[in-house]
Design brief:
This protein is an all-alpha fold and 267 residues long. The protein has 11 helices and no strands. Helix 1 runs parallel beside helix 10, helix 4 runs antiparallel to helix 9 and helix 6 runs antiparallel to helix 11. The longest helix is centred in the N-terminal third of the chain and has 27 residues. The N and C termini lie far apart (38 Å).
Length: 267
Amino acid sequence: MRRALAFQTVRRFGEDRRMALHLVAVVLAAGVGLSLALLGAGGSILAVPLLVYVARMDAHRAIAISLAIVGGTSAVGAFLHHRHGRVRLRAALGFSLCGLAGAYGGARLSHLVPERILLLAFAALMLVVGAAMLRPAPEALEPHAPAGLAALLAAGLGVGFMTGFLGVGGGFLIVPALTLLVRLPIHEAVATSLVVIAANCLAGLAGQWQQGGLHLLEAGPYLAASAAGAAAGTRLAGRFAAATIRRGFALAVIVLGIAIGVSQIAG
């Protein structure tokens, strides 16, 4: 009798702990939307570690849910930015064409890769992203001649593949590409990138659906919190120095990437 009571107590404690972790993860998901609205990037870089290390999901499941969270949040943010006249739909459509195919293929391929390799690849990507974001913002770089159509399509394909494979939106590449290749002002590039991210995530979700790795109902609370963060970030856009936000975010991403890499190597 005592043994059964102790077992039930331990089980109830474990369930309460999992519920508490999920609630914490949902609250923290607001930061995903905030990052997307302010920077046009960084949502997935936060979402996947949040789901793996706070909500305790496996990597494949976290990547699938991350696509739903980031895609839905990006769509909300793009709509809100569009109301302020910042979105350039023609540029978004052109960049998304190859991204859709890349995202679908990347999502299909990700299920063939072991979880540990996925997380190590994600950690490496975080270090690259953090280092890239510590560099001057695109508008501060020296101007050069616009790139050709082939370079733009290749960039779209590569970003789309990473979206499906690692569950990342790729805004950290889309924003500089739109600024340097399409020559959009930085605020328009940030807003337009959200359209591209939403389209790529939709294609990635289609690939996850084919592999049976889609958990849309689980994504609901995280998506709601992230959308609220995006709404707040859209209102705050332009009120803070972009360089300060980028630098702080970059340092946080680098520290988190090192922590994930060390945990996977040590484990």
